[in-house]
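Help!! Second protein's tokens look totally different from the first
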Amino acid sequence: MKASEIKNKRVVIGLSQFMSTVLSPLLMPSYGVFLVLWGSFLSSRPTGDRAMILIVMFGLTCILPMIFISALQHFGLVHSKRLDLRRERTLPYIFALACYTSGCFYLNHVHAPEWFIMFAAGGAVALLLVLLINLKWKISAHMTGIGGIVALVYTMHIQMIEAFDMQVVLIVTIMLAGCLGTARIILGRHDFAQVIAGALLGYFSVKMMMMLFG
């Protein structure tokens, strides 16, 4: 292999790892909460109130699961924080599901609109399904997460609860989903079927919860 080809391969792998990190499933709920609080009619609420909700949800759905996974790695129960092995994902997913559920109760406590709560509930439903599927098959949690974000942006747009026209945001989100799926395949974390299944699972879990119950 030529030096230029090796360099190009390293660049592609590096970009794929960057995409996987920036679009981690642990960050997706926080991205969604940010889009709701700054992209819907809730953007008229005081900045301090919105920031507090974002911080609490970030703590519940990202920081706590990260701490739990780190603890599992410290005690030798998982080999990597990336949770590459399917059998090592069960405990982290169960803990994350408890955190997601707590986030739903918190949003209800601060009197968030029902559709906002149902976005969080859709994420919890998606995670529960990923947990169950993962017992037999390694579905992509990354794609499940970004599939949920696509559903959120699309639902906000068609229900006209957006603070501005989010067509561009929707297009960018779909493009990011495609890039992320490609990155996961390049890194060898998932195959095409696992990527597509994850995206569809996340999309329909969030969309159905927001449309039917929101």
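Here's the second one for comparison:
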Amino acid sequence: MSEKAKYLARMRRIEGQARGIHRMIDEDTYCIDILTQISAMTSALENLALGLLDDHLKHCVSHAINSGGDDAQEKIREASAAIQRLVKS
């Protein structure tokens, strides 16, 4: 299974979680149960983001560093900015 296929499968599960939360709200489910599902969905999104970041570092950034030049510094800046956004969220 390619990484893309794994990411798409994860997104399908996350979409299912979002639909489930929508249904729970619509059915007036107990608030704590909804919050528990939101926490699970947030964790799933964070894990997806970390996987994408890891792939970016292993492939895009690594390739740019091996190639050298200004592109390498730009890829490092991009990765640093992405990490900052993830840490803040």
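Reply: Different proteins will give different token patterns, so don't panic. The helical segments are 3-26, 31-67, 70-88.
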